[in-house]
From TrEMBL:
This is Probable membrane transporter protein. It is a multi-pass membrane protein. The keyword DNA repair does not apply. Keywords: Cell membrane, Membrane, Transmembrane, Transmembrane helix, Transport. The chain crosses the membrane at residues 42-61, 73-92, 98-119, 191-208. Pfam families: TauE. It comes from the Bacteria.
């Protein structure tokens, strides 16, 4: 019963984030599952559920909310990154990747907060988008945490709150569909637990969507940067713990 409660709460929280902010903040719910499950089992449980969440989210984040020029830059790198992340997960130690990504993200968010939280609009960059997409693919595969790289590319563009959320939602819809199969090769999920958690997907997305509608542009960016900081700290913790340093 404890496991079901934690799993349901984690899926509800992640679904809420998808409805409120688009994609990229799945890692905020994973610590709940880690209290009662092996991380690999948690990852395998969530991988198919992410697809259900994404389908629910696309009811709200429709094509008019997608920044198509940015998706054309990001998505090819995402596919490459997921393939690389699968190799890291199977044959290498992913802790270094987690620590490096955490350090870069904390530097990025630190600059924003120390700069007074202003949105500095920068021009698009093809190479930055390609790198961000690839890095996001790697980290979403090994830690369900692809948000930081793609956010570091998209947030400085100054997109509207709805365009930002819709773009990240579709980006991670594609990513989650691509990584579900590889994750099921890494570990076998508890299918009964997954079925019991499924109703949390539409409920969480619906709650998040209504929360999104109440946010103004500045509040959304502040929330996204705060969530990026939390995500980076969790990645840093996981990486250091993996090396036995904490």
């Amino acid at each position: 019963m404890v496991l079901l409660s934690l799993a349901f709460a984690a899926v509800l929280l992640i679904s809420f984030m998808k409805g409120a902010f688009g994609g990229g903040f799945a890692i905020v719910g994973i610590p709940l599952l880690s209290l009662a499950m092996d991380p690999l089992q948690a990852g395998a449980l969530l991988a198919p559920l992410f697809i259900a969440m994404d389908l629910c989210a696309l009811v709200y984040w429709r094509p008019s909310t997608w920044s198509k020029p940015d998706l054309l830059v990001l998505l090819p790198g995402l596919a490459v990154g997921i393939g690389l992340g699968f190799l890291v997960l199977r044959f290498a130690n992913p802790h270094f990747v987690a620590i490096a990504m955490a350090a870069v993200t904390l530097f990025f968010t630190g600059l924003w907060f120390t700069g007074g939280g202003l949105v500095q609009v920068s021009p698009r960059s093809l190479w930055k988008g390609a790198v961000a997409g690839t890095a996001s693919g790697v980290t979403t595969m090994i830690a369900h945490s692809g948000g930081p790289p793609v956010a570091m590319y998209l947030l400085p563009l100054g997109l509207s709150k709805t365009l930002y959320a819709g773009t990240t939602s579709l980006f991670f819809t594609v990513g989650n569909a691509l990584k579900a199969g590889p994750w099921l090769l890494v570990a076998s999920p508890d299918w009964t637990l997954m079925a019991l958690c499924l109703p949390a997907c539409p409920l969480g997305v619906w709650l998040g969507w209504h929360f999104h509608a109440r946010l103004d542009q500045r509040q959304l960016y502040r929330a996204c940067y705060a969530l990026l900081t939390v995500t980076a700290l969790k990645l840093l913790w996981d990486g250091l713990r993996g090396y036995g340093l904490i």
